[in-house]
Amino acid sequence: MQAEKFILNVNKKDYKWSDLISLGGHGKDGKLECEKVECPEYNNMVTINDGESFQSGCGFDPIDTGCCLEVEGQGITSSFICFKCDPDDIITTLDSLTCPMEKIKKFQYDSYEDVDATFKHKRTKELYRCGPNHNPILNKDSNYTSPRFLCERHEWEQGDYADDIGRHIRINNKKYIRDPNDPYNWTEGYMTPGEGVFACYNGGSCIAPDTCTCKDGYTGFDCKMPICRHEQVDGTIVGCLNGGFCEAKDKCICPKIDSVLWLEQKSAGKGMTGWGGSDCSMPICVQGYFDPECGDNPFAIGGEGCYRCANGGLCIAPDECQCADGWTGYDCKTPICRMIATPLIRKQLMTVDERKIDIFESDPCGMIGFYDGNSMLNDGEMFSILCF
Question: pTM above the 0.85 mark?
Answer without folding.
Answer: no
